[in-house]
Amino acid sequence: MAQPTEGRAPAYIDTTKASIARVYDYALGGKDNYEVDRETIERVRKVAPEVNQLAVDNRAFLIRAARFVATQTSITQYLDCGSGLPTAENTHQVVQRLQPEARVAYVDNDPTVIAHGQALLEDNEFTRFSAADIREPETVLADPAVQGFLDLDQPIALFQIGTIHHFDDAVDPQAIMARYVERLAPGSVVAIAHFFDPENADSELARRMEQVFVHSPMGSGRFRTHAEISGLFPGLELVDPGIVPCYRWWPDGPQLRTEDPVQRCIVGGVGIKR
User: Fold this and answer.
1) CA of 215: how far to CAs of 55, 78, 109, 153, in Å?
2) Rounded CA separation 176/122 (Å)
3) Is residue 146 a contact partner of residue 130, using CB atoms and an 8 Å limit?
4) 106 within 8 A of 83, measured Cβ to Cβ
5) What is the pLDDT of residues 65-87, one digit of tens each?
6) Whether pTM exceeds 0.90
7) Residue 171 and residue 256 in contact, taking contact as beta carbons nearer than 8 Å
8) Cα distance between residue 164 and residue 240, in whole Å
9) Which residues contact residue 240 at a Cβ distance below 8 angstroms, ignoring those fewer than 6 apart?
């Protein structure tokens, strides 16, 4: 694991509150995190020792979903909401390897991500960064980094990978996704990964993790049911195999290892707007 960030933080970073992006960064073995971020994962580790696998499976699903869109559809423009820190393989790296002129717009309003994202992408003419709030679809889609860069009259791939489980019920995540989907052109693809309550023997683990996440310095992390997550794909045709644990969504090969219980507590799905 990379050595974490130490010493004095830049003025724009509040190290008294955990950052969702930096918590994921720590879970993925990154170095752009602080003690308050590490505390969140270490608290969850006490009830779920394999908690890092949530972040690993989340990122692996992003990579496979991006490859799927790049190789199995004619879509060449991507809107990645809540992009996070560049710890591992990122959307533009995956798709531009397959489609060199694919356009990727990232959206994130975390100050740490904004600083890293703008620096990372400044030399890539086919990639843009928007510092908007992904809970506000109209603001996101009206931002010049999105509207002036992606053609919203043509199909796009919209990614909400590991983001919506950080939305409180009070903001109505299903309504937010309905507003996004309404603006998408037919042929567009939506990919979502979300913490999951399986409503079976694994529910106790899911709810224990949820309680720790919600009451940690990060303050969010809802484990929703299959019915609740299905509602995030309004009117979309789900690609086979539907909404399943992330590691089971078109894996790169046969499953040789026994899955960790936490792997059954994060699901992914891809839907197409007809």
Assistant:
1) 19, 33, 22, 42
2) 30
3) yes
4) yes
5) 999 999 999 999 999 999 887 76
6) yes
7) no
8) 22
9) none
